[in-house]
Amino acid sequence: MNVFRLTGDLSHLAAIIILLLKIWKTRSCAGISGKSQILFAFVFTTRYLDLLTSFISLYNTSMKVIYIGCAYATVYLIYAKFKATYDGNHDTFRVEFLVVPVGGLAFLVNHDFSPLEILWTFSIYLESVAILPQLFMISKTGEAETITTHYLFFLGLYRALYLINWIWRFYFEGFFDMIAIVAGVVQTILYCDFFYLYVTKVLKGKKLSLPA
């Protein structure tokens, strides 16, 4: 494992922990898109079904279990534990417009037409757009809490580092996965505007807002 993948994994883990702590400490999920979190739960569930069929390493297995567990814990906190604080009026993105096309694409473009491979491909495609309901929600409300922006920053950083990881693996290991790379590029592009606002506003102590 190279340093870019390890740092990417840690950034991803940091994002998840930041979000969970934010919800638990404030006893509120205000400003958090439950729909994005459901999509991420789908991502991890469909991607890590190989937990039932293969073992790569203790690190690999541990991270997969943590991602799945935290994803469903987040969904539970939003839709059950702190449901009264969930802002469903602004979390209105039509997720079927993401899930259906992504599902169709996974059937058409994959490495191998087998159930596990199609589900893995579905998870890669879905992850690239799963953040859209959250960004849409911020756009509707006009602003985001600072802690929420930190969550989004580390989530975007994770994907950017994974892109570098793919480049590293291509040059030093001869490994190339077009599906993962294209999906990673799409996901990183979606974060570009947010990264700019994060650097120019949040890091200067200002509140982040997206154009309505």
Quickly list its features.
0% strand, globular, transport, transmembrane helix, 212 residues, protein transport, mainly alpha
- State the total count of DSSP E strands: 0
Overall structural class, as computed from helix and strand content, comes to mainly alpha
Shape: globular
- What is the mean pLDDT? 91
End-to-end C-alpha gap? 41 Å
Largest sheet: none
| Radius of gyration based on Cα positions | 17 Å
User: Which regions contain 5 or more consecutive residues with pLDDT less than 50?
Assistant: none
In DSSP terms, counting alpha (H) and pi (I) runs of 4 or more, how many helices?
Answer: 8
Into which percentage range does the β-strand content fall? under 5%
Written as H for each helix and E for each strand, in order along the chain, the element string is: HHHHHHHH
Helical content (DSSP H or I, runs of 4+): over 70%
Transmembrane segments: 65-82, 94-113, 119-139, 151-172, 178-199
GO biological process, one term: protein transport
Membrane topology: Multi-pass membrane protein
Main location: membrane
Fold and architecture overview:
It is a multi-pass membrane protein. Pfam families: ER_lumen_recept. GO terms for molecular function: ER retention sequence binding. It is found in: Cytoplasmic vesicle, COPI-coated vesicle membrane; Endoplasmic reticulum membrane; Golgi apparatus membrane. The chain has helices at residues 3-26, 34-47, 58-81, 96-108, 115-129, 132-141, 146-173, 178-200. The chain has 212 residues and is an all-alpha fold. The protein starts with a helix and ends in a 12-residue tail after the last helix. 34% of the residues are buried.
